[in-house]
TrEMBL record:
Coiled-coil features, chain-numbered ranges: none
Every C3H1-type domain range: 764-792
EC number: 3.6.4.13
UniProtKB keywords: ATP-binding, Developmental protein, Differentiation, Helicase, Hydrolase, Meiosis, Metal-binding, Nucleotide-binding, Repeat, RNA-mediated gene silencing, Spermatogenesis, Zinc, Zinc-finger
InterPro entries: CS_dom (IPR007052), DEAD/DEAH_box_helicase_dom (IPR011545), Helicase_C-like (IPR001650), HSP20-like_chaperone (IPR008978), P-loop_NTPase (IPR027417), SNase_OB-fold_sf (IPR035437), Tudor (IPR002999), Znf_CCCH (IPR000571)
Residue ranges of the region described as Disordered: 1056-1093
Protein name as catalogued: RNA helicase
Statement: the UniProt record of this protein carries the keyword Ribonucleoprotein: no
Species, as recorded: Cyanoderma ruficeps (rufous-capped babbler)
Gene Ontology MF, one: zinc ion binding
Stretches assigned to the CS domain: 1109-1195
Length: 1252
């Protein structure tokens, strides 16, 4: 926290004030207001609350008038003396940290309101920093430095000089003792960061010493004297500049310990047994980059007290299995698991880590809490320049490799023989732009502790000129993704010739999504560095959370004897080639199946563990084995024999040549500490939590060599057998995913038991519908995604877009107000004639202009509607969340603007009573999604460059769009274009198409499956709600019929005033499947039906179909001479096609149904030369134009069954009737209706052209 130093006596006694408010702590503004109110109050009541001198008590806080400050101040009376003219008081000003003498006439009683606010001045001392002095013995003619009881004048002067020259001062509170804060103090002078505690120790003004009560032992001060002639340091120095000292706290959460009089400390701080000393509990501060493998539960001296003794590496010695080929080590009392193929001495403390000294200081400055357990094993081999594979729950944390790689880049001597070309020394490949941005930001943060390094983030679009504009001259570290690097290598093949360090971040994601691209890059790296191999360092680092089958060829073909570090037991078992076997059986036959397995294992001398989940099962198994002459041991919590006894007997059985079988429960495994079993039998189906613990008992038999495949029998030393019964379904999905990951043989019974394993929707049916599914039509990581991937009618259909908002789905006016990302917005659908919200907004503004109408709300309720005035604009808002109120009955509430879609936080007293007449209109905000475009390179999120571009382009501007789908309050549109109205000539100007704008950035590509996937998702609505909707069928169908979803069984009926002539009955399922891929098919809306607007296909008058027939789906394209129509119809029979100058009539039977298309053409054709050819899946009609040229549309009247064939559409720039993008669109006919039809067709054509 940033502070102001008010007064300094010495480093063990100074006062600070907090500059900016933090939770629970007032800032300078609050005290300025306090002083102003005190000044006004006591100036107006000069004679009030006067105190007689004899009534003044020492140790009490009063209000005094300071002659020096010329204002009334709160003061602590420290002395009272009687003089001739009255009493004189010695006071300490608790808000200014000043001492003054005040006459008794200038003292007043402290009003209660002014006593509630805590004192501004906080007394502090430097944490664990004790004074040193030079003691000269003239008799012995020696000089010694030793601890002192007081600070030297030089030390105090230096301390004050640091604070005076500082442009910024920050403090981190570590402990509180007797209401004195013990802090680490930091100053910034001329862009240099200095830890004052460290600086005093470095200049031998002080030394670090743990305080009694937090240390295991402490020596007397007299024993710490050291001769000046000796090489002495108070605590061990690791390097010339970085000091070994107590670690910084993990964060700055000091709100509760800075309350009034520091009395609130007990609620946050943990009292120790020594006096009133209080040390920040580890639970009170946020852990930076918290991961499961954090060096958790270290020895008390390291984790809790964090005292200087933790520098002694012996306190963190690990038990190592002496083996040249493999090592399993346990650190600390929690015995964290690690698998190593080669021995590594961990660096468990930052001060002993193999990092550059200035980098250590930078890490400490940024509150780095590590090294974590995984980092302690990864940093040493990386810093030595070795190839490293690291698999850990923390495998997605870039700090696994950034600090040691930056340390390597400081060694200029290692790179003197570089080829004289441009190119990076280090390359970091990330799976996506978001991770690349994170890595780049961390590099910029930590390069400050190194020599000047120039990192570059490269994210390219697919535009060809993008790669040529990249400048990498002088850069040493490049951060990018595989696709972007390959695009750059096409332009600059020699980019990797100077590369020494290649990092593969999140290796499992890189190999699962871009394996081909990664191996192409590895080949390029191998070829580029081969000619100049020499003595140049070449290193590949791969980190991730899961083992991947592609890591094996990576090791064999591109790495040089890498260090493999795996801290996840399940992943180590995959690398160790543990044979995973699933044996299906029934609950009643489990024991018989177990006996068969043991019979096989007894042929080979093995150590077998049989796991059961209850004492009853253990006893039953042990009895069954005994009755079948199988010698076994048992262990559970009720066993009389202790763990050591059982373990010795089990191992003696194996040594004597007898198969060793131990039946036990999971809670006994840790006490036994078995790691050398050769076979584990899961008699009870394992939960994910215990599965890894059971596999750890096999860890001594994990293979350490690189095998050709997961099923390589020659390398299998350990086996895990799972008995699968009918009651095993609870944890089956998780185990199935692991077995797939391990490439184990999986029986069909396990697949049958988990039919929804990839979706796992049962636990998240109340979650919102997956945003990725809505935006792109697919969620690439359903197993990890927390959201829902199925329709939930109670949520998705709870609020629907009102029918009157979408009178004509083919053309709606949209006003986007909140841009979530490039293709997802919130806004309003504006009616063309009389927009109801516009009328409502005007009425609300007029209503709230009157002050008497602005009635604040006393009791704020969740989900209630209120008014909110922002300047001259009034909004309707809904309360989303209401936290607890403070003393003044005012709180911050989270609200949603129901007509805009955005959320915000406001004070509860800003909410106004909203009359009922303003609540009648339903919320107008709808979610808008632009279809058929997605990010390049299989990214799951839009690059911020695209989102920012679209935000600047469309926010608050009117757009025209065609609705292709609706679900609840979500509207899918395609296309959506920005327009400008010219009312004087009744013409619209088409400014741009959003889809084309996204494609033009090079960061988006076509997504043709989007609409089809949404339709497929919504098909289940017809099934889920079919019975309910049948109960509300109307007596008569309405005029306009639209297909509900794509099922072909349910019809949605909506009344409209126009465009009703061409709408007919929904086609058969075969036509539906064809129509899904057509963005012209606006009739596929899934807007939920109202009770009086639904009719099923069965209720339709069959005679209409017999006379009129179904309308087939037709796609068309053209050139200058002809127009080609493809009629989608299977195995047409009795077909007829009649041509006239301005009309085409086609009819045919397919699968017993009559299909009819009567088309009135936009322009004339030559009937005699036009032809129709019937094929197996379609009929092809060729129309010869009467006049050569391009038609802007096919039909005079819009027909929802006719759409452009985007795959075949071609037109030259010269022949286009308009241009889309930077150019303007103007149509010869100025009438809006004709323009709309042409405009939508042309907009879609333009989008298609942009894809090429």
């Amino acid at each position: 926290m940033e502070v102001v130093v008010l007064q300094v006596e010495d480093p063990s006694c100074f006062w600070i004030a907090v500059k900016k408010p933090i939770p629970g702590v007032l800032g300078e503004t609050a005290y300025e207001n306090l002083n102003a109110e005190m000044e006004q109050f006591y100036s107006c009541h000069k004679d009030a609350d006067k105190i007689k001198g004899e009534e003044i008590k020492k140790g009490q806080v009063y209000v005094v008038f300071s002659e020096e400050l010329k204002c009334w101040c709160r003061a602590l009376v420290e002395s009272v003396s009687c003089q001739v003219d009255g009493y004189q008081l010695g006071c300490f000003l608790v808000d200014y940290a000043k001492y003054c003498s005040v006459a008794s006439d200038n003292i007043r009683v402290l009003a209660g309101a002014f006593a509630k606010i805590s004192h501004r001045a906080k007394k502090c001392r430097l944490y664990c920093t004790k004074p040193l002095t030079l003691d000269i013995d003239y008799c012995e003619n020696t000089a010694k430095i030793g601890p002192a009881k007081r600070w030297d004048a030089a030390a105090i002067q230096h301390f004050r000089k640091l604070l005076e020259e500082a442009t910024e001062v920050k403090a981190t509170i570590v402990a509180v003792e007797d209401e004195v804060l013990e802090v680490f103090l930091f100053v910034i002078t001329r862009d240099e960061k200095i830890c004052v505690n460290d600086d005093l120790v470095a200049k031998h003004f002080a030394y670090y010493k743990e305080t009694e009560g937090t240390a295991g032992s402490s020596s007397d001060d007299s024993d710490d004297e050291v001769s000046l002639n000796a090489e002495w340091v108070p605590v061990e120095f690791v390097g010339p500049t970085f000091l070994a000292r107590p670690k910084l706290p993990l964060g700055e959460m000091v709100s509760a310990c800075l309350g009034p009089g520091l009395g609130g400390c007990n609620s946050v701080l943990e009292k120790t047994s020594q006096g009133s000393r209080t040390i920040l509990n580890e639970n009170t501060v946020p852990v930076v980059s918290m991961v499961p493998d954090l060096l958790s539960k270290e020895d008390k001296a390291v984790q809790t007290e964090r005292l200087p003794q933790f520098l002694n590496s012996n306190s963190l010695q690990t038990q190592t299995v002496e083996d040249d080929q493999k090592s399993f080590q346990n650190v600390g009392k929690e015995k964290n698991f690690v698998f190593l193929n080669k021995k590594i001495e961990p660096s468990s403390v930052l001060e002993t880590a193999p990092l550059f000294d200035d980098l250590k200081k930078e890490l400490a400055w940024n509150k780095f809490s590590g090294p974590t357990f995984t980092e302690s094993y990864c940093w040493p081999p990386v810093a030595l320049g070795c190839d490293v594979i690291a698999i850990s729950h923390q495998g997605n944390d870039p700090l696994l490799y950034i600090p040691p790689v930056l340390t390597l880049l400081q060694l200029k001597s290692d790179y003197q023989t570089w080829p004289n070309r441009s190119g990076p020394q280090a390359l970091i490949l990330c799976p996506g732009w978001k991770k690349a941005q994170l890595v780049f930001d961390l590099l910029k943060t930590y390069r400050k502790g190194c020599r000047p390094l120039l990192p570059v983030l490269i994210i390219l679009g697919q535009n060809k000129e993008a790669a040529s504009q990249v400048e990498i001259g002088g850069c040493e570290v490049v951060v990018t993704t595989p696709y972007n690097l390959l695009r750059l290598l096409e332009h600059n093949p020699g980019l990797l010739c100077r590369l020494c360090h290649l990092v593969l971040d999140e290796i499992e994601v890189l190999f699962s999504d871009t394996a081909e691209q990664v191996f192409t890059i590895l080949d390029c790296y191998k070829k580029a560095t081969a000619p100049a191999h020499g003595n140049l360092p070449h290193q590949i680092i791969a980190v991730g959370t899961q083992w991947n089958k592609h890591i094996t060829p990576l090791i064999k073909e591109f790495m040089n004897d890498p260090h493999i570090v795996i801290t996840v037991i399940e992943e180590a078992a995959i690398f160790g080639n543990v044979q995973q076997v699933v044996q299906p059986c029934t609950n009643s036959s489990r024991t018989a199946e177990l006996l068969k397995i043991l019979d096989l294992t007894q042929r080979k001398l093995q150590k077998v563990l049989v796991f059961a989940d209850s004492v009853t099962d253990v006893e039953m198994i042990h009895k069954a084995l005994k009755s079948n002459s199988v010698v076994s041991l048992k262990k559970h919590q009720e066993s009389k024999c202790n763990a050591q006894c059982v373990l010795e007997r089990w191992r003696k059985m194996h040594s004597a040549g007898t198969p060793a079988v131990l039946v036990l429960t999971d809670d006994c495994l840790q006490s036994l500490g078995i790691t050398d079993a050769t076979c584990v039998i899961h008699f009870s189906f394992p939960s994910p939590g215990v599965f890894g613990q059971r596999l750890q008992s096999l860890s001594d038999n994990f293979c350490t060599g690189i095998k050709d495949s997961a099923g390589d029998q020659e390398h299998m030393k350990a086996k895990s057998v799972i008995l699968l019964t009918e009651s095993s379904s609870c944890h089956a999905p998780v185990i199935l995913r692991y077995l797939k990951h391990a490439e184990a043989e999986i029986p069909q019974e396990l697949y049958d038991m988990t039919p929804r394993v990839l979706e796992s929707e049962e636990d998240k049916f109340s979650r919102p519908l997956c945003a990725s599914l809505k935006t792109f039509g697919i969620c690439r990581n359903r197993t990890e995604c927390p959201d829902r991937h199925q329709i939930n009618l109670s949520i998705d259909m709870a609020q629907n877009v009102a029918d009157e908002m979408i009178e004509t789905p083919e053309r709606v006016t949209i006003l986007p107000l909140l841009i979530v990302h490039a293709t997802n917005y919130f806004g309003r659908i504006v009616k063309k004639q009389k927009d109801q919200y516009t009328v409502l907004a005007k009425e609300m503004n007029d209503y709230f202009k009157a002050p008497e109408h602005r009635i604040s709300v006393n009791n704020v309720e969740n989900s209630a509607f209120y008014g909110l005035c922002e300047g001259a604009i009034c909004h309707r808002v809904q309360v989303v969340e209401t936290p607890a109120k403070d003393e003044e009955n005012v709180c911050k509430v989270t609200i949603k603007y129901i007509d805009e879609g955005r959320t915000s936080q406001v004070n509860s007293d800003q909410l106004l009573h909203l009359p009922a007449k303003f609540q009648n209109l339903p919320p107008q905000a709808v979610e808008i999604i632009v279809c058929r475009v997605k990010p390049i390179d299989n990214e799951v999120e839009w690059n911020p460059k695209v989102t920012d571009h679209i935000n600047d382009k469309i926010k608050g501007k009117l757009h025209h769009a065609k609705v292709v789908h609706t679900l609840g309050k979500t509207v899918w549109v395609d296309p959506m274009v920005g327009v400008t109205s010219l009312p004087t000539i009744k013409m619209w100007i088409n400014e741009y198409s959003i889809r084309s704008e996204i494609l033009s950035t090079g960061l988006g590509i076509d997504n043709p499956e989007h609409v089809g996937e949404i339709q497929k998702l919504c098909r289940q609505i017809a099934v889920l709600d079919h019975a309910e909707r049948l109960e509300h069928l109307p007596a008569k169908p309405e005029t306009a019929v639209e297909k509900f979803g794509t099922s072909g069984q349910t019809l949605l009926v909506r009344s409209t005033e126009e465009d009703t002539a061409g709408l007919e009955e929904v086609p058969s399922p075969q036509d539906t499947s064809i129509q899904e891929n057509s963005p012209e098919s606006c009739d596929s809306s899934v807007t939920p039906p109202s009770n009086n607007a639904v009719q099923t296909k069965e209720a339709e008058d069959c005679s209409v179909h017999q006379q009129k027939g179904y309308h087939p789906q037709i796609k068309w394209f053209q050139d200058n001479v002809t127009v080609t129509l493809k009629v989608q119809i299977l195995r047409a029979a009795d077909s007829k096609c009649e041509f006239s100058r301005e009309k085409v009539a086609f009819s045919a039977y397919s699968e017993g149904k009559l299909y009819v298309a009567d088309l009135e053409l936009y322009q004339s054709v030559i009937a005699e030369k036009s032809t129709c050819v019937i094929k197996d899946t379609e009929a092809v009609i060729l129309l010869v134009k009467e006049k050569k040229g391009t038609w802007c549309k096919l039909l005079k009247n819009k027909n929802v069954h006719v759409s452009l064939d985007f795959e075949r559409w071609e037109e030259s720039e010269d022949e286009r009737p308009f241009t889309v993008g930077s150019g303007k669109l103007s149509y010869p006919p100025a009438g809006s209706e004709d323009w709309f039809e042409d405009w939508f067709e042309s907009s879609e054509d333009s989008d298609t052209d942009s894809d090429d």
